[in-house]
Amino acid sequence: MKTLFWSLGLLVCAWPAWASETAAAGVNLTTTVYGIVALVLFVGAYTLVIFEEKIHLRKSKPVLLAAGIIWILVALAYAAIGDTHTPHTAILGNLTEYAELFLFLLSAMTYINALEERNAFRALRSWLVNKGFTLRTVFWLTGLLAFIISPIADNLTTALLMGAVAMAVGGNNRAFVVVACINIVVGANAGGAFSPFGDITTLMVWQKGKVAFVEFFAIFFPSLLNWLIPAFIMSFTVPKEKPSVSDAAVSMKFGAKRIMFLFLLTIITAVSFHNFLGLPPATGMMLGLGYLSLFSYYLKIIEHRSHSTGGPLDALGHGPQDEKAPDSFNFFRKISRAEWDTLLFFYGVILCVGGLGQFGYLAAVSNVFYNGLGHTPANILVGILSAIVDNIPVMFAVLTMDPHMSHGQWLLVTLTAGVGGSLLSIGSAAGVALMGSARGIYTFGAHLKWTWAVALGYAASIFAHLMINARYFH
Prior knowledge:
It is built from 22 helices and no strands. It has helices at residues 2-14, 33-50, 52-55, 60-80, 86-117, 120-129, 135-149, 155-170, 174-193, 200-207, 220-235, 256-276, 281-307, 331-336, 340-359, 361-373, 375-385, 391-401, 407-419, 429-437, 444-448, 451-468.
């Protein structure tokens, strides 16, 4: 319901200042029945997304439905004024943006799935659990690793991995598991904020060309402060006792290290495509997916030789027992295990927000936020909103509004949208995922008790950015 109240609040505040994207042509569709129905539909769909954990309705389903209906309303609204060209052009632009995001994420998710299948993450977890560290050491290590890993992997995968370590070590110590999970969520979100690969929002900002690849690292220290301050405060509640360790050890499967190298090479390829060739990073990521596809062929041959009884291989490297082999690596199976709910959710969000932009709502909100409040307060508020509403539609809305801002302000909104979700457990994918993993222990209320400490880190990161990166604000 909070999403509903926020959205209706913005609607009421912005009503006198409505200025649609077609205002230049003298067209305002925000007060039409089509426009109002589209807004209510989006708010209703996103309210269902907020309650995903309660009603067990996958988040992609309501926004997919809303996206289709909203664009029907857009087409009807423009047809009523004799314009059938604008909706077609606009939706093609939205589809292009989604295609770039989809292909980029599909490649990254496939690599993560491949590393997971090769036991890379389980081996790291086993090593940490079996080292015999104290609870306080595990608290700091899991938070630090969340901060370090999330710039390369996504914050969701990072949070689940480190959360599993914290729960395995903490056992029945509920107090430790709670603060460790909060620390991991904050670390994962903060680590993802200073890297184009660390979060969907940073990826969108980079692909839009608002911030160059190397410029993201200007917010490294503010992001670090965002994690360190609440971690330091919470660490005093963690005892130095040593939990019992397990003798079980997990080792990585054949090819895991080479897949890590190929993933790094894929990232370099994507950056090179963008920086040196002027091509979308997604095309570089898909070339990197080609690296993995060829390596998977090599893996299948090697593993076939290990498990087959000597039957002949066909042209694709398949043997009589290839698919039954316990260690068989199947490239297309890794692609099929991508987070399709998430990928379809992004489609729905992008088209929903794009449709509302055609009615003029985004221009109106931009006028209230950026012209009324000013750039810095507006960008700080964006981060707070991202703790209530998912940061992806919030950031996509900002990019669609495209306010005229300095590089410093674009870095600021990248920072706040990335780390603002840590203020509440429902504010980021990392938090929602850990609430599912540590069900009944790490809860919304448990996180809320430490929101004040997270907010101190949020404020400190903004202040640090304004001071350290003052040169970007000119």
